[in-house]
Request: fold
Amino acid sequence: MFKIIIIKCILLVIFFISLTFGQNPDLWDKPTIRYLKKGRIGLEVSIPNKLGLKFFAFHGAINRFIKPNEFGDFYGEVTEPDAKNNIWTYSNKDVTFNENDVLYYWYHYQINSIQQDSLAEQIAADKIDIPKGPCKKSHTLISGKAVSCSGEIIFEETFENLNWNQWKREIRIPAEDSAFISYQDRAENVFIKDNNLNILLTTPYSESEIRDINNTIAFAKCTAPRDSDQCDRKNSFWQIYPPVVSAKLLSSFSFLYGKIEIRAKMPIGDWIIPQLLLEPKNYEYSNKDSLEYSSGQLRVGFIRGNRQILDLKSQATNLDGRTLYGGAILEPRKFGRHFLKTKMQEKHYGEDFHIYALVWTENNIELYVDDIKYGTIEKGLWHKIQGKPSILSNIKDGRVNYWSSAGNLMAPFDKEFVISLGVSVGGMGDFPDDIKKPWTNNDIKAEIMFYKDKKNWKKSWDDNKPALIVDYVRVYSV
Reply:
């Protein structure tokens, strides 16, 4: 009798232990959560194997609370452990996190016949484990200071708000390429919407303001040298107010060598040029207000916003928004844009978000879109092109001498650059004269000719999406 009572007590204890274990997920092994790659890319959730474990499921969502038994934005079921590591692993290579994101999740176990959901859990993105690996020496500099390891995030902007300690506005009439715009600090031109940076073109001036010969536009807070033509302009018979207002932001952050990623949606509309740029911090090979590009410019990605561009015979060309360009600019004229690589697709790049990337090292510059490499520019741009003397070696104004005297074949891309985000229109550099357009490059009245065609280009803006929309900017050490 006593033995029967003991056996019943043991069975009762086992029952209550099993019941408690099934209902209290704190007694279960909590999953290990980590990123698949540096940069908060991909997600891996794993648990160790244990006797009787038959099933594991995970449901997750970013910045959205989910309850147990509620489907996540991403989820998966695992029915057996990984044979190599003897762990149960759910992975998702497509999910990415921003710095301030929160992962909400729940998970489900089955051990033998016992099944149980976890409680609702959450973890901040900056608390998720980052994959460890050997430290590869970095060649990146930030404001003159070395970075220890390559592959580290050294700058990130996710645009929950506009941090004016991190960015500054340009206020001026741009000299470069003689674009038909002014950069101003109007709220309608640069703003945050849905956690994205929006830079929008506007046309706020009346006909009389633009054309009246007695009018002058002047910027009290001009960011260009005060004695330059970029701070004020008086109308004349050949010169008018810039008819379009835009915005341009420069980062306070500067670096030498690195990988920059910008997830953005390009603007759509005639004669629009999005600016996803790296520009010189100190213009050590030229003055900032120079019309030339002696200190260089790196284009992380740009397109012409037009849906269609015709040649002079009214035949369609591939110069429209279906062609992406990226690379280096060393000279305002056509041959100075020789160092741009291209990637065509069937749809206008402004129809969707894409990740535009540029990898800048002490040996070359590589261009990517959505992780696909579409071009490499080797060092010695001014020295040779594919082993032949560079067309730039014929420049007579001494710039090549400046570059060669630096003793670095990456010159002028051997100095620190800042990140530049903006939108431009028209100008003399990016739209050649062998296409149908309302102005002629180098014509003293080019801006007037462009303005006279406002009825057409403004309609293309109104019918489409003339804003540059930026989701995030990240810079990694290399």
